[in-house]
Amino acid sequence: MPHCILIRHGESQWNLENRFTGWVDVPLSPKGEQEAKSAGEKLKSYKFDKAFTSVLKRANDTLRYILQASNQLSIPTEHDQALNERHYGALQGLNKAETAAKYGDEQVKIWRRSYDVPPPKDKTELNPDGYSESLKDTAARTLPYWEKKIFPEIKNGKNIIVAAHGNSLRSIVMHLDKLTKEQVLELNIPTGVPLLYIFNADGTIVERKYL
Asked: What are the domain boundaries of the chain?
């Protein structure tokens, strides 16, 4: 039965600094590199036919460390912005604790975890276009990519790994686990921990577990 590994990148430098990252292309922290290498050790026995990742360095490097561990760097790998983290708009680069002190914990939780409330769209140095995305907006680009590019490979019996980000993966997990808008509010994807889905030939899920 085909399997799919979903993995959020290891801790980034801005995760370490407790800052909103979004589309800013920050590297892994030393801890994040170790998380990625540890994930690679857990996944040594898994053989993948294809890999998918975003265009951001922290996800790319996480995938590289994982594939290095099992000598699978030569497998086909597709990079696409559809798997990028959600765009945090005017919050990008801001410290989360300081933002909570300014706007309140509840408002920041809504911006971070809600389904359809986007962060502020103000123009800043890190967001000159004044753009931002809710989880709903992120899902609007991530799920069509899943349905068109990734899921057909699984239904064709391929073993897949997807290295991406907290919110692009939240949208996929919400879809696979059939979570409601209320349930997804409490969904957190940990950094560097492989999430395994095993599928039947018809694409139904047989098993789901963190490794």
From this structure: 3-14+27-80+134-210
Instruction: State the pTM of this model.
Output: 0.95
SS (H, E, C) 7-48: EECCCEHHHHCCECCCCCCCCECHHHHHHHHHHHHHCCCCCC
Q: Which CATH class is domain 3-14+27-80+134-210?
A: alpha beta
Q: pLDDT by residue (tens digit) across 26-80?
A: 999 999 999 999 999 999 999 999 999 999 999 999 999 999 998 999 999 999 9
Tally the residues of the chain.
Answer: 211
C-alpha pair distances (Å), 14 with each of 25, 31, 68: 10, 12, 25
- Considering 9, 35, 153, 165, which one is annotated as catalytic? 9
Is 85 catalytic? The answer is yes
Amino acid identity, position 70: S
Give the whole-angstrom CA distance, residue 80 versus residue 87. Answer: 15
Residue 87 known to be catalytic:
no
Please state the φ and ψ torsions of residue 142, each to the nearest 5 degrees. -75, -45
Catalytic residue among 11, 33, 35, 85: 85
Distance CA 113, CA 135 (A): 8
Whether the predicted pLDDT of 186 surpasses 90: no
